[in-house]
Description:
2 copies of one chain form a homodimer.
Chain A: H1 20-34, E1 66-67, H2 70-75, H3 82-89, E2 99-101, H4 106-119, E3 121-126, E4 146-151, E5 158-162, E6 167-171, H5 176-184, E7 188-189, H6 202-207, H7 221-224, E8 225-231, H8 233-238, E9 242-243, H9 256-260, E10 269-276, E11 278-279, E12 283-291, H10 294-305, E13 313-317, H11 319-324, E14 333-341, H12 347-359, E15 363-364, E16 368-371, H13 380-391, H14 394-401, E17 404-410, H15 415-437, E18 442-451, E19 454-464, H16 470-487, H17 503-509, H18 512-525
Amino acid sequence: MSERKLSHWGWGWADKFPSTDARKQLGTQLGAMLGIAPSGPTDPVALDDVSLHDARVSAPDSVPCVTDDREERIRHTYGRAFGDVVRGFAGDFAAAPDLVAHPTTEEEVGHVLDWAQGAKVAVVPYGGGTSVVRGVECALPEGFAGTLSLDLRRLDRVLEVEPTSRTARIQAGASGPRLEEQLKEHGMTLRCFPQSFEHSTLGGWIATRAGGHFATNYTHIDDLTASIRALTPAGVKEGQVWQSRRLPGSGAGPSPDRMMLGSEGTLGVITEAWMRVRPRPRFRASASVKFADYSKAVDACRAVAQSGLFPSNCRLLDAREAKLNMVATDGSSVLVLAFESADHPLEAWMERALELARDHGGVAGEPTYSDSGSKTGESGAAGSWKNAFIEMPYLQNVMVSLGVIADTFETAIPWDRFEELHSALVTNVRGAMKEVCGSPCHLSCRFTHVYPDGPAPYYTFIAKARPGAELEQWAAIKKAASDTLIAHGATITHHHAVGRTHAPWYREQRPTEMGNALRALKGALDPEGILNPGALI
Amino acid sequence: MSERKLSHWGWGWADKFPSTDARKQLGTQLGAMLGIAPSGPTDPVALDDVSLHDARVSAPDSVPCVTDDREERIRHTYGRAFGDVVRGFAGDFAAAPDLVAHPTTEEEVGHVLDWAQGAKVAVVPYGGGTSVVRGVECALPEGFAGTLSLDLRRLDRVLEVEPTSRTARIQAGASGPRLEEQLKEHGMTLRCFPQSFEHSTLGGWIATRAGGHFATNYTHIDDLTASIRALTPAGVKEGQVWQSRRLPGSGAGPSPDRMMLGSEGTLGVITEAWMRVRPRPRFRASASVKFADYSKAVDACRAVAQSGLFPSNCRLLDAREAKLNMVATDGSSVLVLAFESADHPLEAWMERALELARDHGGVAGEPTYSDSGSKTGESGAAGSWKNAFIEMPYLQNVMVSLGVIADTFETAIPWDRFEELHSALVTNVRGAMKEVCGSPCHLSCRFTHVYPDGPAPYYTFIAKARPGAELEQWAAIKKAASDTLIAHGATITHHHAVGRTHAPWYREQRPTEMGNALRALKGALDPEGILNPGALI
């Protein structure tokens, strides 16, 4: 049996890219639904036909886990942003690293960093390669001899599970499915399901501050992290490992873990972490509520977010998003509510949440309750939603082959500023799409997370591409979105990270002195500046 | 009417120090309860009789908010640790600052920092002066011309309240009562009640990562902070203010707020913050549960902490603590449970929590439920508990005058390690007390906060002092406690901060490279190293 292969240019497994006929049919559906006429479908440049520059440095004998294999280099060139898929589809791998390392131990990671510092080789920590912000793409920076992609996926084990404290020590290269299958043996789950879950890794989630599965309360990877272990270039030289204590809480100085969380591979290579896990849920409740008026739906969502009920799901889909997802086709906005618990039935929680929704004009469907008893695993509805959510990124592969721009952007904003921001985004992003792509085009919004002080809105945009101009058109739309976010006090990213894509806006967003602070931190931990140059800092 | 004065040597208001007779009586009660025979009572050295060194630098004309007034200098010498009270009582103010500043605007804070950098004067940001870890005490560091205490209490206003997003912009020098009285006008509350609430300030809470009122879920000042504004010495030179965006969440790089949270006045002077506030609670539920077996009580407490019910109170008092607080005198441990909500009745929550407690052998009293309707303010029981809690530190003043050592230390530890840690602490701390103070002595424990992965235990120790040897005896006991915490993987502090007291153990606790990281951060933000030298870094 041959090993299942990942696509070398697009999202996920290669065998999931549909046939020409199937893509043609999807194009027809798209046209009917959104009025956007597809072109093509065209086919990607085959792996064998990709032309690749020669490696500028050679694999060192002292570090046998390093290779300059052509296919490895191609496969480690990009993340999976829209622009990455477009370039990969077109066979453009100009940013390919010279070398790829596959360490199987933390010691080998140290050897790679040690060698790279001496050889002045830029090192890009690589987890699932699912960045949508050009977080792992590293063209040769000035003053460097070459670039190396440090693939951590062979460090994929759950090393310890501590059931009393519900914590597990997990290697950074474990993908979502790998860590969940190992935790399952202990009746535990991390319950962190970013959309990239199938391929992204724990270390990547920590480095990019991944958003979690739940819409409220402890859900971000930040909240689930009890301690982090990392190798820094300075530490490797001095025989030190960055290792914080496994603690439920601590007031001892600024949190060391919060320095690594969001560091995007620029300060150290995360090798493992103690994570807060939990038993699989037993009780579930779910319901959806329709609203004729979006602004009342937002108020209802806010009321639930501020109630202290902490639903696991509290996702508001605007009318376009509801239609796109075939949740409502009558122009309603839909609030999807869910609760889950391993401990107690959820009627009191759901009933109060529905009461709040009705108070704001919502029309609630009958809630469903389930008790899986001793059985574990997702129940029907939740399971199929999760599967559809996980499958979503595959559609982008198809869109690119159909000459369609399809992407998302996300943010967070206080409730009092949401309406103004939303209206400005609709004006500016639709305006940019019409200008560079023409009509019709699509922009829709859902909330992925809600907090007492504000929502995290997530936007999907779809427009017709002009062959050869996709990247330029996309950049104009993205600029309109990003400029609007920054002008309205929002964050340039809620859970997609900064990478190279968001760097210009991130520099406007952070306190000016925060740039100096980060450079100083980097100077202390990575004095040669070899780690992921060009990202974040 | 003359202004009410704070004690110049001990906790809180001067007029609350009991008369000699009253103290004698309290000493008799203490003897009867714990068998610890008090001495004295003695009286503190009067303010007028304190001898003070001359100021080594003089107040600059360019910064009129600075004074070298003798009384001001005495009053800004110490925090309120046991050793501070002992030294203050004895009239020893050797660590007094040369100058005290009382800025009334952020601009004046900038002027002070600007002048101090040029004059090589160490600046100690000062809020309520309630540090119990020698966080505001600053003897003249080598290479400095003098020291200045930067008192921020005149920056005490709530500047804006945003009801939709439930956030408020508050100046850093506002004490607990000051900010609550201003928020109350808007029907809001921060609900952050550290034991120092009456005198400590928002800026101090942020700088020291104060623990909040609730035993579970969003409770720490870290969680309540939406954005921070600070002046750094480097920023003052460059005309920059450290200002993060008010956001409900953000995944853009490492959190700038988390760099300031816990920085203990070493990186910048916090001038204001946007805080997450909430309406005053309407529904309350409370109950207490007795356990004959402490280890079963711990299991019950853990079950509640891991249930996802998020009680506002989940404080386990061991038998000695329960007796000391007169909650139970029959040798039981007592779990105090409470829920509160502004949104919904709490029967379902409390019933399930009591079920969990009973499953672990607890004997639960009848829960009480209340609905204050439109009325606000604390209900009877919660209110009187809060008042007693807030009054507690006054007892230390009395203890010092009675020749008794009385202090607390606190930590956090995963559940799986608690029992071993607790047993080691009992052995080592009681051992140290017996060795240096003789029998009888007292050590008791309660949980102040509980997390799914572990508790935050808080210990009270009381022993007989030998006149003139109090500080030395205390240091031996504290060393036994701190060594044990570090050896058993716990944190040196959960919410009291590091200061100068915990610095040696903190250096063992943090990742070695974290020291380099913090020094680098300080180099970038405070290049002359004027801010609170000797604390934390």
